[in-house]
Amino acid sequence: MMCGIAITSRAIFIWLPHFKPMTAIIIITGIAFGTESGFLAGTISEFVSNFIFGQGPWTQWQMFALGIADF
């Protein structure tokens, strides 16, 4: 559920550059459900949202960065 909310929030704010509420949602997930759930939510959300914004060689690093954002 949190992955869906994070992906939707990133897609809704596509018109506003450099504003991604996705990170805040991932951090809230990590605080509420634990770091393992936050890491999984971060990596899955970034992977799936890049289907909208474009995959590339940077995707794995974005997944890692959002995964560790909740630690």
Q: Any key phrases for this structure?
A:
71 residues, mainly alpha, globular, membrane, ECF_substrate-spec-like, transmembrane, ECF transporter S component, transmembrane helix
Structure description:
The protein is mainly alpha-helical. It has four helices and no strands. The longest helix is centred in the middle third of the chain and has 19 residues, at 35-53. This is ECF transporter S component.
State the total count of DSSP E strands: 0
Secondary-structure element string: HHHH
The largest pleated sheet is described as:
none
What is the percent of helical residues? Answer: over 70%
Secondary structural class: mainly alpha
Summed up, the helix count is 4
Principal-axis shape: globular
* Portion in strands: under 5%
Mean pLDDT: 92
The separation of the N and C termini measures 20 Å
- Cα-based radius of gyration, to the nearest Å: 11 Å
Q: Poorly predicted ranges (pLDDT <50, ≥5 residues)?
A: none
Describe the secondary structure blueprint for this structure.
Layout: H1 2-12, H2 22-33, H3 35-53, H4 59-67
Helix pairs in contact: 1-2, 1-3, 2-3, 3-4
